[in-house]
């Protein structure tokens, strides 16, 4: 399996999560990832308190192709505050936060349905 070096273009389902990372596109990555319609990239966020609008900028950059953003908040569920939710809503994106395992499964279902979805996923041990 190849190592992920920063960005892989294309729309990929997630093959596995856990052990601090993710597997997708015949690659693996330790750490968090940001998945948009254009591809999967390293996301330098280790805990939910580090999620900012700046860290979600690639989602805003692709807002015309995204209806729904799933934020995987780590091992626990966290409330997505209005400071994050409102600017995304103004861009036409509905946001839902859930534990990362549930977020990854939901993302895969929506990608399988060819829905316009993005995911910001915090890695869990």
Keywords:
globular; Hypothetical Protein Mth938, Chain: A; 125 residues; 22% helix; 4-stranded mixed β-sheet; alpha/beta; 6-stranded mixed β-sheet; 10 strands
Question: How would you describe the overall organization of this protein?
Answer:
There is one protein chain. By secondary structure, the chain is α/β, with parallel strands linked by helices. It has one domain (2-121): Hypothetical Protein Mth938, Chain: A (3-Layer(aba) Sandwich), CATH 3.40.1230. The chain is 22% helix and 33% strand. It contains 3 helices and 10 strands. Strands 2-7-6-10-8-9 form a 6-stranded mixed sheet, with helices on both faces. A 4-stranded mixed sheet has the order 1-5-4-3, with helices on one face. β4 (21-24) and β5 (27-30) form a beta hairpin. The protein is globular, with a radius of gyration of 13 Å. The model has no long low-confidence stretch (mean pLDDT 94).
Helix-strand layout with pairing:
Layout: E1 2-3, E2 7-9, E3 14-18, E4 21-24, E5 27-30, E6 33-36, E7 39-42, H1 57-61, E8 68-72, H2 82-90, E9 94-98, H3 100-112, E10 117-121
Parallel strand pairs: 1-5, 8-9, 8-10
Antiparallel strand pairs: 2-7, 3-4, 4-5, 6-7, 6-10
